[in-house]
């Protein structure tokens, strides 16, 4: 590159221009990028970085430090504050351009694709109180049934499979059950534990997909019963699903249709926890009666999950939530962080579709 090279800055601007056009052409984005270009990226990553026994994000961090080191080395050779300033501004523009370019081309254009629920022909709408009560009844019965397949003990479940075994089972189920959704996802993405334990939760994150390495990560301290669903959620992101509510929905369908009772239970338990939040908001008094009559084992698991969540508090929950909300909205997810709460509506729409109504 020459002394006045703005290549990465220009590529970043071009990438943003393509994103702008993609926003108005979701079907073309789906056909060209999500169904043709991105699957190639997905499979290349899975057959390379996916085999590493440790998070490949460490390579990214190392690269960042090397680039910063090179920048400081070159900066020292510049004479005068004007040359140093010009070089710094150009380096900053190229750095941001490179981040934008790789983010969009490695994954980010999936934000402009046709929403998954539209591809599946679902029509999610806010639930009435009566619809919610019916859904809660179905979900809590399923949760109770699947929990009994795991254990007859009503003591909270706090230990399950080793993580390598769990990840392998979830990956297998993703591959086996994606066809039922009619989605042409390919690849075998990884979701790895991200050390040190508790760090991600301190940052207000349970799990995350990192586009620059094509891997997703969860915090090792995540409650045992939350891990199966969260791993499936992050793997959905790895397949190019960007909306948080849709990633929750795919995780729920995949785990719910597994032959493994642990995955089934994790899916229904997560859905139930979303549903009862709405239940409490819509009918607080009836919600209290529901909790009193809830299966003791399921209730103990919910309490255990709550206690585990409160044991590690984020540095600033508000900053974490707000930054995530801004990021999602900047990518076209109008609901922002509220998209996480869409699972009850999507699950209801899916159950209606499965009934053929």
The count of domains is 2
Poorly predicted residue ranges: none
CA radius of gyration: 22 Å
Helical fraction equals 55-70%
Total number of helices:
15
- Mean pLDDT across all amino acids: 90
Q: Describe the main β-sheet briefly.
A: 3 strands, mixed
The quaternary state of the protein chains shown equals single chain
Structural class: mainly alpha
What series of H and E elements makes up the topology?
HHHHHHHEHEEHHHHHHH
Strand portion, in percent? under 5%
Strand order of the largest sheet: 1-3-2
Shape verdict: globular
Describe the model.
Helices cover 64% and strands 3% of the residues. The relative contact order is 0.13. The chain has 357 residues and is mainly alpha-helical. It folds into 2 domains: 7-112, no CATH class; 116-355, no CATH class. The mean pLDDT is 90. A 3-stranded mixed sheet has the order 1-3-2. It has helices at residues 7-23, 26-46, 57-76, 81-106, 116-119, 129-150, 163-177, 199-202, 227-238, 244-256, 261-282, 284-293, 296-311, 317-330, 343-355, and strands at 191-193, 207-210, 215-218. α1 packs parallel to α4 (81-106) and α11 (261-282) packs antiparallel against α12 (284-293). The chain crosses the membrane at residues 7-24, 57-75, 87-109. This is DUF3810 domain-containing protein.
């Amino acid at each position: 590159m020459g002394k006045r090279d703005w290549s990465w800055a220009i590529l970043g601007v071009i990438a943003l221009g393509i994103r702008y056009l993609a926003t108005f052409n979701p079907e073309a984005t789906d056909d060209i990028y999500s169904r043709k270009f991105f699957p190639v990226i997905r499979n290349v990553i899975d057959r390379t970085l996916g085999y590493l026994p440790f998070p490949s994000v460490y390579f990214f961090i190392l690269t960042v430090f090397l680039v910063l080191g090179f920048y400081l080395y070159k900066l020292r050779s510049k004479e005068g504050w004007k040359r140093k300033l010009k070089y710094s501004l150009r380096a900053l523009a190229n750095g941001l351009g490179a981040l934008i370019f790789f983010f969009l081309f490695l994954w980010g254009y999936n934000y402009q694709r046709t929403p998954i629920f539209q591809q599946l022909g679902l029509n999610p709408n806010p639930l009435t109180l009566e619809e919610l009560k019916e859904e809660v009844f179905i979900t809590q019965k399923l949760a109770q049934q699947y929990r009994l397949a795991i254990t007859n003990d009503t003591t909270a479940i706090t230990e399950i499979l080793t993580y390598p075994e769990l990840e392998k089972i979830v990956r297998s189920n993703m591959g086996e059950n994606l066809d039922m959704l009619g989605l042409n996802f390919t690849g075998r993405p990884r979701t790895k534990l991200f050390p040190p334990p508790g760090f991600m939760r301190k940052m207000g994150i349970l799990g995350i997909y990192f586009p620059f390495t094509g891997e997703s990560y969860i915090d090792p301290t995540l409650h045992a019963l939350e891990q199966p669903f969260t791993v499936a959620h992050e793997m959905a992101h790895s397949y190019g699903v960007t909306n948080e509510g849709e990633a929750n929905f795919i995780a729920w369908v995949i785990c719910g249709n597994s032959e493994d009772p642990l995955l089934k239970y994790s899916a229904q338990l997560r859905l139930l926890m979303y549903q009862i939040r709405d239940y409490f908001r819509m009918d607080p008094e009836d919600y209290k009666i529901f909790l009193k009559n809830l299966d003791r084992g399921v209730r103990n698991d919910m309490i255990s999950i709550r206690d585990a969540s409160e044991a590690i508090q984020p540095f600033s929950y508000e900053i974490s939530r707000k930054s995530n909300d801004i990021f999602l909205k900047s990518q076209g997810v109008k609901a922002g962080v509220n998209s996480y709460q869409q699972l009850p509506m999507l699950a209801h729409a899916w159950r209606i579709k499965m009934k053929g109504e």
